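Exercise 7.
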Amino acid sequence: MSNLVYKKFTKKQKLFLDGLRKPADTSSGFEEACSKSVVVFSEYMLGMKLYYWEVAFLYSLQCVLEKKPISKILDGDGSIKSMVLALTSRQIGKSTCLAVFALWASFFNKKPDKRFKSTQVLIVSRSFDQAKKLLREIKRTYQDGDRFMFSHEKYSDADGNPIFGKDYFSKRLAKNDSNNATSINWRPYDEHKDGEFVLAGSNAASGIRCYAPTDVVLGETFTIGFVDEAGHKSIEDDFWFDSLKKTGDANQAMWAFTSTPWQSSGFFYEYCDLEGKNATDYIWKVVATIDTLQHDIDADNDYARVQYEGVLEDIKRDEALGKLDSVRRGYYCEFVQGEDSYFDPEKVKNAFPSDAQMVDYYSGECDLGVDFGAQKSSKTTLTISTLKDERIIRLWHREYSKGTDLQLTNDIEELFTRFNIQRIVPDDCPAGSFMIEEWIQKGWNITPMAFRTWKVKKYGAFRAQMFKGTVESYEDDSLRKQMLAMRNSENTKQSYIQAAKGYNDDLIDGWILSCFHFLHTDDRVKFHEW
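Solution. The predicted structure, written as tokens, is:
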């Protein structure tokens, strides 16, 4: 990932972050200082001692909201970012950051819409229960702020009486707008009661709403959008690109994404852009592993020490149960094989050596796989592979969009002039039955593969060879994404291998077809006599 990686703060960076904890302008009034800095707001109004990574994350969110560049001290490049992404460990304070920023932005009306001059924060979680849980945490956060500002001695007058009363936040909740399990609403601005900065200028209720990833959110108007656990399979690409993003774009919403690395596919994974191939420089990216808390322990933060030691105990228990991938994924932010991912991401990466090239001619013996496209989305593909020195090598492929494969037979005849094709292995499906019969009549060596019968076995054999490092392809980003998006599921009767929703499997199916005869279902490469 490009941008800032919060694993090892330098001394200079920690001094910068410590400086953010205090008002930049000592001449500012209390509410003005808190309105100017989400970090100051957190520590002075909510009474929260933030971890270093939380300070850095909240600071970066504010910079993006206010269209300011991230400080070069934190490795900013001087450009203004439009989105923020945080790839984080579990149990590290991610929900706390969402709560603090949502409260600060809505309470000080930091991103007002054009019509009502009010800030609307939307947080999408992976389930309805998670959404309600997050909103409960936000409510507890402002209630803690009420108690902090009422009881702390520094907010008392000369006679010891509290300056801000016992309900600084709660007294500003809207009475005419709902405050329930999914929403928090502040009343509109009242200059006499609120002064210059609190709820500044809002003509209607500013608020926070937490929802599950369903079409219910599409009727909402919001100016700040958070997608929590954005990498989880329950938050699908279609929902983000076709629905949620377009709804927020109507108000030029600021977007931020937080997640642990659930799976090596989907929009969150592509936004992480681990290999720097997706042109995502407009996103400010943060990585915070559980070891990030070491910085706070070094600064004598006792709460961080207790938290870290407790998490280490959880890690030891998981490791004792053999849940090593779960530990790497959940606490060290590694995109290892997901719970239902079919292929191991690291093995997929190794299957595309940098020196491999697609070829247009090959005199050695090889096979051609033909995957017929479905009517709606998937494409017809031709794939040629060979078995050489005990390695399965993908040599060439071609994709056909819908309606462009009418000359498929002619194209295969032309391939015979450039490749020493021994067998053609088509997908034995209704869409290809007419062509398969035509090819048989031509005298070609046709050995159809019935996916219903062979898919699980041949995919299993292929995966076993990939684990051993004996399959390779030239660079093909579309194929790589398809492989990472393949999912494995089981019921009481059988196993299923299929593409995640929003993805196709035509390229990987075509590769499997082209090496059908090279694979034994007992996971051994079959040395076939041509």
